[in-house]
Design a protein that fits this description.
The protein is an alpha/beta fold and 262 residues long. It is 34% helix and 26% strand.
Length: 262
């Protein structure tokens, strides 16, 4: 993604923080259990989270006894995260971009859930490596959309609406095509592969929540105001023609962990 698009899109998720919090997919508990185990974390260990959003991934880390410093650049999302996480005494939310933030001390693990691709490529792996204690871990997690072979026909039919507005990208692949991934080549100077896992799961949305999720996605916002409005109108009309059914989405949670190298 060009820097102009990356910088313009990454800070727009807080336009409707409540809808973002309600509709974004959250990686399943098994992924966070695996993250803690594979990274060798124990209660009290210091974790830095990049781009915590509204704290959806922070809560599972805090519930496992970790001391989390969560950095979020969008003020609206950071405020909601602060409120949601107030019950955890070992969690702090910082409103800042990851690139501009200067920490106090080092961390046992750096975690990024659906966020690392927004970080400046020059700092994406170099800065986490600097912030980790020797032998610390980088854990990268994300939720990938998928379309099983037995998915509702809606998911095939709605591709016509994507094509009508010139949406970039391809339809989601079947879940079995989404496999664990190692760290990319640009991370090799800083980390060695430790583990890679996959965690399929499903989420059922009401039609309105699905539309709210769709509106918040970077790809939709990248269309611009007119085409994004046309796209959402088309999808809304399609849902109305079907009687406003609930929609079950299949996701694959991916977890990749690297160990910092000397």
């Amino acid at each position: 993604m060009p820097d102009t698009d990356r910088l313009g899109l990454r800070g727009g998720y807080g336009r409707d923080a409540a809808a973002f919090d309600r509709t974004r997919p959250v990686c399943p508990p098994q992924l966070f259990t695996g993250l803690v185990r594979l990274a060798g974390l124990t209660p009290g260990d210091r974790v830095l989270e990049i781009g915590c959003g509204t704290g959806q991934g922070t809560i599972p880390l805090a519930e496992r006894g970790l001391a989390v410093t969560a950095v979020e650049l969008d003020p609206a999302l950071a405020r909601l995260a602060t409120a949601r996480l107030a019950r955890f005494g070992q969690v702090e939310v910082i409103t800042s971009s990851f690139e501009d933030w200067t920490p106090d001390g080092s961390f046992d693990t750096v975690v990024a859930v659906n966020s690392l691709h927004w970080v400046d490529p020059a700092q994406r792996y170099a800065k986490p490596a600097r912030l980790l204690r020797p032998g610390g871990a980088l854990a990268v997690a994300e939720c990938r959309w998928s379309t099983p072979d037995d998915a509702d026909p809606f998911w095939a039919d709605v591709q016509a609406d994507y094509r009508a507005v010139g949406f970039a990208g391809a339809p989601p692949p079947p879940p079995e095509a989404i496999q664990p991934e190692p760290l990319p080549p640009e991370a090799r100077a800083f980390f060695e592969d430790l583990a890679a896992r996959r965690y399929p799961f499903t989420v059922t949305y009401s039609p309105e929540d699905y539309l709210a999720n769709l509106a918040s996605q970077a790809g939709t916002r990248q269309l611009g105001a007119d085409r994004s409005a046309e796209f959402l109108t088309r999808v809304r009309a399609r849902l109305a023609s079907l009687g406003w059914p609930p929609l079950t989405v299949t996701f694959v949670g991916l977890l990749t962990i690297g160990r910092s190298t000397p």
